[in-house]
TrEMBL record:
Superkingdom assignment: Bacteria
Topology term for the membrane: Multi-pass membrane protein
Main localization, broad class: membrane
InterPro entries, per database record: SLC26A/SulP_dom (IPR011547), SLC26A/SulP_fam (IPR001902)
Domain SLC26A/SulP transporter, first and last residues per copy: 33-395
Subcellular location(s) of the protein: Membrane
Coiled coil ranges: none
GO terms under cellular component: membrane
Stated name of the protein: Sulfate transporter
Keywords, comma-separated and alphabetical: Membrane, Transmembrane, Transmembrane helix
BP terms from Gene Ontology: transmembrane transport
Annotated transmembrane regions: 36-55, 67-100, 107-127, 133-152, 183-202, 208-229, 260-281, 301-319, 339-368, 389-418
Amino acid sequence: MYKDEIYWREKQNMSPKLFTMFKQNELSGEQVRKDIVAGFIVAIIALPLSIALAISSGVSPEKGLITAIFAGFIISFLGGSKVQIGGPTGAFVVIVYGIVKMYGMDGLITATIMAGILLVIMGLLKFGNLIEYVPHTVTVGFTSGIAVTLLITQIKDLLGLKINDVPAEAIGKIESYIHNINTFDMMTFIVGIACILIMIYWPKINKTVPASIIALILSTVVVNVFSLNVDTIGSVYTNISASIPMPSVPSFSIDKIVSLIQPAITIAVLAGIESLLSCVVSDNMINDKHDSNMELVAQGLGNIASALFGGIPATGAIARTAANVKNGGKSPISGMVHAITLLLIMVVLMPLAKMIPMTVLSAILIIVSYNMGEWKEMKEMMSLPKKDVVVLLATFILTIVFDLVIAIAVGMTIHIVANIVLKNKVDSEIEDVA
């Protein structure tokens, strides 16, 4: 009961978890040491992911690291979760790619800042409590839909297809791949498949060293030592910066803001839902309760900071958060160490990133897309009542064909209408019996 009272009081005050832990003397020297080790390990996991997610989003590689550094630090420092790891995620790839294609990098930065402001407002208005009312069928549907769209995005680099202008929509991408299948490169495909196999079987040999790092290092060495004709980050992106840019504010205008309202809402909704779902998962792992509203505020501030330094949208990364807990992280210090470690890696080792094959990054994200899809749960949900199955499939399909906001809106509408109809039917049957 005492813990529940503390949680209720913290939630009303919206205090960052780090500050609360200091006040309650929950941080021992031993735990801080464990958090530092966990933060370093998570940074190693986040390194190839951040680069791969940036490239797949249509921006240069370093912008993924900038996002993990600035957004990741603020989300941990000010967040409502003890163990949340923030940064770029696979859920944003298709959304960011579409915004960059339509509005350019300047438009993405503006939309991300707007989304950050929306998230802060949502947190201050206590909107974080609304996550409890989102049906599980909707969250499973759009999460698995996002996984499919991320997988589709990776086909180009896995097959080594030469396409200058890839459409933003999933169906358009597939059509583009089919039309350009004659540019298929066998060597690129072999390297990519080899990386996928390494990431599948390496954990059976060693679970300490991340499989993605092993695949990245081995493929980079093989491609460069044997001078294989495979596209690398350096051959595609000639100007990669290893320096941290100065913060800059994009130019604003009423017309620009109005045109970016829908993308900003999409970013805010996805960042809010995914981060809070990640918090729920981590709560179960560490037997704690997060402050959903404080988390939204931190997510908002993290996205604003990321955008000001030229980064992309960020949210809570479920897989990295889970890795943090599994490696001993139990306070926001691990997330902050993760961000600082990435900063040091970017400054010192970024020039070496030019040698990384593009196909290994696609292989890493293919594994990510498979892991983020809730396939087992979707299969089990097919035995639910028809109204729930319709909500699940509608959200799943619409996420792939259109976008997240439309999918969630339609899924929620079907859920609400179906339950109202069901309730009226039950009430009518009760009246007939009476």
